[in-house]
């Protein structure tokens, strides 16, 4: 299992220079990074220009960091009812260019009526099948970013249903213990339920309960992360877990304290 850091809040939203950010991440002890599937406020994966792709991958390679995942931002289900559906194929191309093994997307979904949700479900299944035909030959997997209130994947069982309907071993899930906990679920029990369908993990923390909660760095909230890490180890998970932060959190503090909260349970020095 590898420990990564998701750079989006800093290199994209706060426009922090890539090289010093990655140098700090590497010096802290991380194994890799997650990067945004788009640049800045754009929703187009081509906004990550060839020069930016080369800079990101070249810097990561120089520092011994792997690029673990491409993270998109628009919700897939909602975008399929617009003129600009989520460009998963463009995100797969970005993954190929940067050496990332998985593209993570958010599900979303209409909540106003059952008929529209049923239509969205069918569109999502068909869209994922089509995009997996593109991704699989390129050795890239697709993973939905967890479960959440109102999404088509609003329960662990809903994800399993859509996973079975898509019917591809290259479609899985991004494990998010924070949102599972806020849904009133035990993340370790869910990890046992999902098993090898977990392709990646995002670790953030929180204080409070839904809907009155605030996010924080792992180790500074309510989640017992050493237990979560042990739970992933017990199911044989051997991919990357990545610390997810927000612009309200200081970069150096997030980098250092997040590492210190998780590294010991992974057998890494601090």
Quick summary of this structure?
The chain is built from 11 helices and 10 strands.
Describe the structure.
This protein has helices at 8-11, 18-28, 50-63, 76-79, 88-98, 114-135, 156-166, 177-182, 187-194, 225-234, 251-262, and strands spanning 2-6, 32-36, 66-75, 102-106, 141-144, 171-175, 198-203, 205-209, 212-216, 240-243. The strands form two sheets. Strands 1-2-3-4-5-6-7-10 form an eight-stranded parallel β-barrel, surrounded by six helices. The protein has a two-stranded antiparallel ribbon with strand order 8-9. Strand 2 (32-36), helix 3 and strand 3 (66-75) form a beta-alpha-beta unit. Helix 2 packs parallel to helix 3 (50-63) and helix 9 packs parallel to helix 10 (225-234). With 270 residues, it is α/β, with parallel strands linked by helices. The chain is 42% helix and 20% strand. The chain has a single domain (2-266), classed as Divalent-metal-dependent TIM barrel enzymes (TIM Barrel, Alpha-Beta Barrel), CATH 3.20.20.150.
Please count the helical segments: 11
Q: Per CATH, what is the topology?
A: TIM Barrel
Order of helices and strands: EHHEHEHHEHEHEHHEEEHEH
Mean pLDDT: 96
Total count of domains? 1
- How much of the sequence lies in strands comes to 15-25%
First and last CA, distance: 16 Å
State Rg.
18 Å
Range of helix content? 40-55%
CATH superfamily: Divalent-metal-dependent TIM barrel enzymes
Task: Identify the strand order in the major beta sheet.
Answer: 1-2-3-4-5-6-7-10
Q: Helix/strand/pairing class, anyone?
A: alpha/beta
Can you name the CATH architecture? Alpha-Beta Barrel
Tell the overall outline. globular
CATH class value? Alpha Beta
Q: Write down how many β-strands occur, each being a DSSP E stretch of 2 or more residues.
A: 10
Regions with little confidence, pLDDT below 50 for 5+ residues: none
Q: How many strands, what sense, and barrel or not for the largest sheet?
A: 8 strands, parallel, barrel
